[in-house]
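Preliminary data (for renewal application), adenosine-5'-triphosphate complex.
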Amino acid sequence: MDANQQIVLDNLSVRYRGEDEAALKEISLTAKTGQIIGIIGNSRSGKTTLCDVLSGIIPNIVSGHVSGTVRLGEFSPFEAFDEYNFHTGVVLQNTAGQLSGLSDTVFDEIAFGLINQGMSEEEASKSVVRAACQMGLEDLLEQAPDTLSGGQTQRLAIASEIAFDPEFLIMDDPTSQMDPVGRREFFEWLAGCSEKTIFIVSNEVDDLCEIADQLWVLEKGELIASGKPLDVINQVAEGHDLYLPVVYRMAKEFGKKLPSGLFPVKLSELKGCFDDQN
Ligand SMILES: Nc1ncnc2c1ncn2[C@@H]1O[C@H](COP(=O)(O)OP(=O)(O)OP(=O)(O)O)[C@@H](O)[C@H]1O
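Predicted structure:
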């Protein structure tokens, strides 16, 4: 595989200052760029820490002892952070804290970074409208950011990042405050993002199984599984106290297996199990 189309984590460990135990422990894997990668795990398993390393926040902004390699295509956050930053978009867990606080309107907030980066007003305006439409904010462009709901604020934070059209998008629990319809729209949009490499931490395991190319599962700072959702969920289903997708649980309850012997994890796979036996 061309090294420029590879995601490489090699022996990645992170220990926060003053902590004895590492928050991430010797994580190694490779994957192809251009995929949607869902990062799951229980609370304190290291998901946010992994996002913060992938985004370069650790160690460039938040200090921590980091060892090992992180490479997204030709870029590494440990080598030329400004260049890395230019190619990556980041949506933090605390989305409200990521807004500038300086904009009177949603439009201005999305335009803020673009204009700061030297884009012309005309170009920026086109990018703002495109990103706002993708996040369903087109009717809210004149509204003040501090009047938005939690879910709308998350959409605004995402729109502000995708307005740059980054090659890599790293999102930490971006739908936690969205209502079910908003969440479904978001995951539908995500499923159509074929050009980008997307890392998304989410507790919405059902949605991730529908759209993700890969799942990475963390437990106590260790990577316990990675690969296609079907393989990964079947691998971690026993012996780990993890949330399992509804489809998997239903299939198991009704004894519906795929020809491979695995239980399905997404609706289309489950439907196939019923079709085969009718
Ligand atoms: N700034 C910090 N300083 C010290 N320890 C930290 C810091 N941030 C996180 N940790 C510790 O690192 C470990 C992993 O935390 P992290 O936030 O990455 O987990 P998580 O899987 O994202 O959890 P959650 O789902 O609850 O957000 C935890 O033990 C946590 O207490």
